[in-house]
């Protein structure tokens, strides 16, 4: 075999995602894209704000020497300063540009953090259900992802985490608002979690870094707020991007912010800056850094996602699906009628409705609907959802 056995195994392990893509493409070719209701991808469909395009045009036209050149690997200092000012407000703790690294999206940020922290064989813990790319991100740097089942209502199960932590645990990932569940962890749950991490770090004699992956922080509804994590736990790295809240995932722009009180702070930030370089990112895209600097705190029309959520949830509830309206993200994660997610997803496919089984997020028995689609897709899919539901009843 020409490719590495490790990568071949990973490809085989994610084959059902490939199969889903292939089935989707086949259905679209057969019935026309308008007659296939594709809820499988988290690709934002709400238009970027007009200031994004205006700023982009203005910046492209600016006459500036070296504007397409290399820069410090952490990003432009003035862009980092603008981000730091915003993060200070969001995280309720004053930080400066020396705590911020501009990254190629949240995916890039997670990888530079994990590469900086992990020794071969180290473990990274995360609660289920979870974004399964974390498994690959940990593996990229010699680590191993361990998934801890969540408590009631997708809360973090403090006891289960505490029991699973030994000296091999280097990092814990939390993702709130969560992909796929839409869950926002409460301040109380996060406080208890932070206290547990402090106890575990003392017990194992190792600093456990908390990686908060927050690309959906601004996509929240009904007045919900995402608690700040910096004041709760010093060894925190917040990783995020503008992919979802500005609808620009293809532009690959985000940042990592490190709590200034983190253990070994200077080494940690310098390691992450080095990793930005040696993973081949070198630095986050120059043009996009300039654009997002002026758009701190801005987002697309979140009300549009709220409307889509309600349209979807109300329609499915009327059919008889059991669900709770999520407070964040553009995902709905709900129990599969009949309990078998893989066969229910097949049933929906027969109705040309594409969703992702919970098994793809380490939580069988559920499925994820990504509702960042046109309202018409939601409305027109309801017959298919009803037919599949009636077949199981
Ligand atoms: C939970 C989570 N983290 C990270 C990412 C990666 O996002 P980015 O485009 O910023 O790399 C995604 C993308 O879907 C995600 O859902």
Tell me what the structure shows.
The chain has helices at 5-13, 15-31, 50-61, 77-90, 105-117, 133-140, 158-164, 187-204, 265-278, 286-293, 302-319, 341-350, 375-392, and strands spanning 37-38, 100-103, 123-127, 144-148, 169-175, 209-213, 236-241, 254-258, 331-335, 353-354, 356-357, 366-370. The termini are far apart. The protein is 42% helix and 13% strand. Strands 2-8-7-6-5-3-4 form a 7-stranded mixed sheet, with helices on both faces. Strands 9-12-11 form a 3-stranded antiparallel sheet, covered by helices on one side. A two-stranded parallel ribbon has the order 1-10. The chain has 13 helices and 12 strands. It folds into 2 domains: 5-48 and 301-392, Alpha-Beta Complex (Aspartate Aminotransferase, domain 1), CATH 3.90.1150; 73-293, Type I PLP-dependent aspartate aminotransferase-like (Major domain) (Aspartate Aminotransferase, domain 2), CATH 3.40.640.10. α3 crosses α10 (286-293), α5 (105-117) crosses α6 (133-140) and α7 (158-164) packs parallel to α8 (187-204). The mean pLDDT is 96. It is α/β, with parallel strands linked by helices. Bound molecules: pyridoxal-5'-phosphate. Residues 42, 105-107, 131, 175, 179, 213, 215, 241, 243, 249, 254 line the site of pyridoxal-5'-phosphate.
